[in-house]
Amino acid sequence: MYVLHITPFFPSEEYPHHGTFVKTQVDALSKEEIEIGVVQIFPYVPTILSKAIPNITKYARLSKGVEKYDRYKLLRHPYIDPKCDLPCLRTRLLKDSVGKVLSKIGEPDIVHGHAVYPAGEYANHLGKLLNIPSLITCHGSKIHTYPHKSRINKYRVLKACRSASHLVAVSDDINRKLWNLTNRKGTVNYIGIDTGRNHVACKDIESSNLYHVLYIGRVTKQKGVHDLLNAYKKANIGRASKLVVAGPRSYNIGRSVDGCNKSLELLGPVSNDQVWRLIFKSDVVVLPSYAEGLPTVIIEAGATGTPVIATDVGGIDEVITNGYSGFLFRPGDTSTLARYLEVLACHSELRELFGNRLNSTVKKSFDARRNSQNLIKIYEELINNTKITR
Questions:
Q1: 305 — alpha (psi -120 to 50), left (phi > 0) or beta?
Q2: Residue 322 belongs to what domain range?
Q3: Mean pLDDT for each consecutive 10-residue tract of the chain (390 residues)?
Q4: 234 and 188 both lie in a single domain
Q5: 306/285 same-domain check
Q6: What are phi and psi of 269, to 5 degrees?
Q7: Tens digit of pLDDT for each residue in 2-19?
Q8: Number of domains making up the chain
Q9: Is residue 390 part of a domain?
Q10: Which among 194, 232, 239, 236 has a CA at the least distance from the CA of 214?
Q11: In this structure, are 162 and 216 located in the same domain?
Q12: Rounded-to-integer distance, Cα 355 and Cα 351, Å
């Protein structure tokens, strides 16, 4: 069986943090007895435009062509996205792009798109062209925010979801929203991590007397980083502490940093290995987002036995039970967040209890190898039993 993954994000030397959860899944699948190929698609950007428009330079920096990993090949492939919905134009451009992909990476038995648009649309087109099944994994933002921004966005999501042979949702919450949006449910399969590593032992080695608070993710208004900074300033922690904020910044957090400069470290984008090192050093991971699917960082924290304070949004409550394996709070409630930071700072036994319980949940439900085996069963069923009709 040859499975081709289509994704708009995958780690690179330029952007080591992009799509680590996709790479984790692909790595786990490649260890099974199937052949794997990966295509990262991104908009083609002429050199002159990449210099004139700063926010698209990230695409121009990506390397193009085939890269070989231990068990699979990766093709980074720029394609022309007309940003319009004229069927004849989109179909022609997609057909030309798909032809180039197949000539470099071979014809698969099934194609798996990550994110409904554009990868889901691309996967569906490839599946239709080769008369093979197309599967789409539905992640957070493309279900709970993207379709509500415009009618065109909603049309794209509906068309992709209804054209796919099968849908996979990364959480029960996403699956419910998928049903409400498209009248179609998928199979819930969590994005896992490698639970075989002894993350907790590494945690013990990295421990220190300083109370470390960690945020990892994009620094945007929707992620609630300003709420974390304000709560951190409010909190009466009562001991030496440090707040580390790691991730690419797309807006100015401005005055939110005033008052905590001496105990604040702002990092830029970090690689997956750096993510683990930061979590190992931390006493608590905070995720103050206003919207989420099922963020990988809380699963990674659980693997190390690190407690989490997070907003009660998306599928987070499928991982953390409030007051049992972590703390949950309403988005924007900085007073409650400050109180939770104080409680965990003062009670090391509670941090250990929450961390151990979260660790048990992660090992039980978020193992990458077990979840990849679930995917293989879906692949086999689609290849053997599904008659493709579009």
A1: left
A2: 199-365
A3: 93 80 91 91 66 57 75 84 54 68 88 92 90 92 83 90 94 92 91 70 58 91 91 86 85 60 79 88 95 89 95 94 96 96 94 95 91 93 66
A4: no
A5: yes
A6: -60, 140
A7: 999 999 889 887 777 788
A8: 2
A9: no
A10: 232
A11: no
A12: 6
